[in-house]
Amino acid sequence: MKPRSLRVRLLLAAAIAIFFALAAAWVAMTLLFERHVEHRAEAELIRDGMQLAANVSIDARGLPVLSNEPGDPQYAEPAGGLYWQASTAAGSVRSRSLWDESLPTSNVAKGRGWSTRIIPGPFGKELLLVERFVRPERGSEDVLLQIGLESESLHQARDEFGAELALFLILLWTILSAAAWTQVALGLRPLTKVRTEVEALKRNPRERLSTDHAEEIEPLVRAINELAEAREKDLARARRRAADLAHALKTPLAALAAQSRQARLTGAIEAADGLDRAIAAANAAVESELARSRAAAIRAAPGGSSVAALPLIESIVGVVERAEFGTQLVFEINVPESLTIPVAAEDLLELMGALIENAARYARRRIQINGGSQQPELSVEDDGPGIDADQMAQALARGGRLDEMAGGHGLGLAIANDLAEASRGKLSLARSALGGLKVSVAWTPCAADAPARHDDVTLTRH
Which helix (H) or strand (E) holds 8? Predict the structure, then answer.
């Protein structure tokens, strides 16, 4: 199974490639070192052979005689690893290191130059042998000079070099892997910037990815921007169609409401009740669709606005107090004058208007509106019937039907929740100390937003 992380894939590929490259380098460098050591040993043997050639002669019996032997002590030590031998047809003379062994004669060295071969040597050891024929005097018999070195010492030098080289290459592999990690991190850094800009695009559909990216990433950036533009256009068309449909339904629903009142006046009370229920359900669906269109518009709007909460709350309360369901209620406003909410004024007006109106419809006598002193937060409490704890999650769900439940708070809470989420707030429900429902909305200022601007509030209608 392949890892899903591109970083892990690149690092694994780099580490494996570096490992095999260094392993091949280890094999090649070990072989080259072995060849180099053999050539050096061959040169040393030829040097000793030249010394033998300079000191060899033939006696009256035809036997080779040396006036001066090579001075390396290994030639004098039995089985010392270095051997020489001078041979003629009459016999041979050899180093003390050969003891009672001898080097095999050969026709390989018929030429006047030095030749090299590997042979099974004395004492059961493999031997690197250099040899040639020399003629000590004009007209004399040729003498075969042979100098050998046990190749075990060469192999031992190769193995020691290979072990030390392996340790170095392991360290080099670690360093190169760390360098590859740095390279991958630097190479993927542009994707981190793309991810950050995509997050901003998720928060605000009007945002677009910047064009200041690496050449290889520009096609991806263009594709994302084109997709974002197409999505924004599709959403705008869908919102317009939904809003147009909702507005178009308002007039027929008003006409049906008039027909219901007329039917009630003529005595068809049961039919009028059924018609009123159908009209109420249709009105709720229309209001829900309009609210969601407003929420979509809030999401699409650029961030960076803020509004003073107290004047806006007082404006909303002033309107609700004049409504039929708000004339008998007492409103308590405990909002600090310094409290500002990181939301555009018209958006906060929609949200708090929905919450205060919803509370006024179900309150018995009191409504309390509180504002946070340390963070941007507003709450609305009433002394109405409230909502059971197990129904609170359903109240915020889209399509929730708490209107049909005793003491429910209707569609208003679901609409308010959509508006809160659209303005980057979090809406929560709890039991109020007044006995009814407490609805709280808290906002977390986004550090990435532009510097806030304070909007003036003018409440025209609600």
Answer: helix 6-55
Give the HSE-up count for residue 361: Cα atoms under 13 Å, Cβ half-sphere: 14
The neighbour count for residue 248, using CB atoms within 10 Å, is: 10
SS3 450: coil
Domain parsing of the chain, residue ranges = 6-157, 204-300, 303-462
Highest mean pLDDT among 25-34, 224-233, 234-243: 25-34
Instruction: Mark residue 367 as left, alpha or beta (left: phi above 0; alpha: psi -120 to 50; beta: remaining).
Output: beta
In whole angstroms, what is the distance from residue 84 CA to residue 75 CA? 7
Find the helix or strand (DSSP H, E) in which 241 lies. Answer: helix 218-265
| 431 close to 438: Cβ distance less than 8 angstroms | yes
70 phi/psi in degrees, rounded to 5: -55, 145
| CATH T-level topology, domain 303-462 | Heat Shock Protein 90 (3.30.565)
The beta strands (E) that lie in 111-165 are given as 115-120, 126-134, 143-150
Provide the token pair at 289.
Answer: 């669709």
Q: Per residue in 324-337, is it b (16+ CB within 10 Å) or e — as a string?
A: eebeebebeeebee
Render pLDDT for 169-207 as a digit per residue (tens, 0 to 9).
999 999 999 999 998 888 887 777 787 877 777 766 667
What token pair was written down for 376? 């941007």
Distance, in Å, from the CA atom of 166 to the CA atom of 27, rounded to the nearest integer, reads: 10
